[in-house]
Give the backbone structure.
Amino acid sequence: MRKKVITIILSLIYTIFMAVGTSFIKSNSFKYLKDNLIIMIILSLLLFLILYFILNKLFDYLDDYKKKKDKTENRILNLFDKHPIIFSSIVMFICYLIYMIAFYPIIMSKDPSFQLLQYFHIDNKYSYYSVLLDKNVIITNHHPVVHTLLLGTCVKLGMVLFNSSNIGLFIYSIIQTSILIITLSYTIKFMKEINVSTKYRFICLLIYALVPVFPFYAMSPVKDVIFGCLIILYIIIVYKCIKLEEKISIKNIIKIIILSILMFLFRNNGIHVFILTFPFLILINKNNRKRFLIIFLVVVSLFVTYSKVILPYFKITPSSVREELSIPFQQTARYVMEHENEVTNDEKKAIDKILGYDTLKDRYKEEISDPVKNGFNKYSTKEDLKNYFVVWFEMLKKHPLTYVEATINNTYGYFYPFSTKWYIYYKYTPIIKEHGIDY
């Protein structure tokens, strides 16, 4: 029964994702779905039944699978079972080595390119997005300072020791790839701890080792890779704490605190993950409420100290508030594009003080929020933001579907597998080269 419920839920979720994704990739809205409702219902039902059948067969096959193994296969599986971290790490490293050689020194994109400019004190767009605390300090917390320092230090190390920033970037790629491989290997060890069968763990290892997204991810120097590893480790320790019936140990308390600190150091919104997690921990695990509360207060205090004391002390400008407002900004831009005739003069003035109203409609791109955010007025006040959100809420009441479509249009690529809008960052290599960094 449990297997059937899981199969139905998975099939239903995937079917909904496919239907919604198809509509948005074709019309950037629910319009295609509504215009072809009967056909879409029939196709969705057919897809649901096919998925249900395939998943059922797959689960039955895995449950009944008792294939005979020769001694070599048994030896390999026994070795995998006995040393999950070492065995998995070696397998993944061998598979990832192909990508490390092919994409030497690293798969560079625009964000880490600009982080390097910040590290080497070179003017860049991020130094213009905020009102700098000190004009002589170019580095900002738009991208996490700790990650910028790690990336920049590796490049500088390569330049000092080998006279090559490429080698510096490769040093970083080795560090990051190692972190990802060890983290993924640890998930396999954790699955063993919770009694997941060897065959499922081995399948998981094959996915980690052979699906290209993992090595590609490892070779991309964006902040999300290390942050993603920290999230995985944090989820595991939280799971263990939820299942824990006795008092949480000092060792686990230290682990949670360290992981929580690293999360907000490697991504600015990492603190949100921590804050949203703890109410559930306190509610679920009654035996450890006091200890969880202490952890919460310690981490929040350290975050406030870091963001309000340490960064300002070094004249490092915090990230712009615009980075937290992608969703409402996209919703406002879409509203203006679709319902411009309903926008009053007062509403135009409120929006203009934040986003620049005259060009907002033209800047709106359904699947990326950067063009809209780029029009943010860095000199806007708290009162301006307050007035903007009053307008935002009034517009929400008038056309809520516009807001829903704006948000889905901006995010459906996360759940729709056939959205392939590639970005080729060939423009950013010259930016680095012209400033003496030879990547």
